[in-house]
């Protein structure tokens, strides 16, 4: 698991969504349900490759107390993230 410091970002939780922002933009967000199923995850391209998607998924796991389940990816980038996460488990 990555140990990225998100203290420079604002974390907002509302209706089963975690959103990371800074004073200028949305950094990323994840939408999930109480069973731990991730319905959508996004990280702003400028902030990718820093472990933020994994950090968002960790927050979901901590919130739900469940193993993360990802929906089938709808984009090539989503497939790449899924492959990366399978190696991470």
Could you please describe the fold and organization of this structure?
With 89 residues, this protein is an alpha+beta fold. It is built from two helices and five strands, in the order ββββαβα. The chain has helices at 52-64, 76-88, and strands at 10-14, 17-21, 26-32, 37-43, 69-70. The chain is globular and about 30 Å long. 17% of the residues are buried.
In short:
With 89 residues, the protein is of the alpha+beta class.
How would the blueprint of this fold be written?
Elements: E1 10-14, E2 17-21, E3 26-32, E4 37-43, H1 52-64, E5 69-70, H2 76-88
Tertiary shape: globular
By CATH, the superfamily comes out as Gcn5-related N-acetyltransferase (GNAT)
Cα(first) to Cα(last) distance is: 9 Å
Q: How many domains?
A: 1
Which CATH-level-2 architecture?
3-Layer(aba) Sandwich
CATH class: Alpha Beta
Give me the CATH fold name.
Aminopeptidase
What are the salient characteristics of this protein?
alpha+beta; 5 strands; 5-stranded mixed beta sheet
């Amino acid at each position: 698991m990555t140990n990225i410091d998100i203290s420079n970002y604002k974390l907002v939780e509302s209706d089963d969504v975690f959103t990371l922002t800074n004073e200028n933009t949305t950094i990323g967000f994840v939408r999930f349900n109480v069973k731990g199923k991730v319905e959508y995850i996004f990280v702003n391209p400028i902030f990718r490759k820093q472990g933020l998607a994994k950090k968002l998924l960790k927050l979901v796991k901590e919130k739900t107390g469940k193993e993360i389940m990802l929906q089938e990816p709808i984009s090539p980038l989503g497939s790449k993230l899924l492959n990366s996460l399978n190696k991470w488990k």
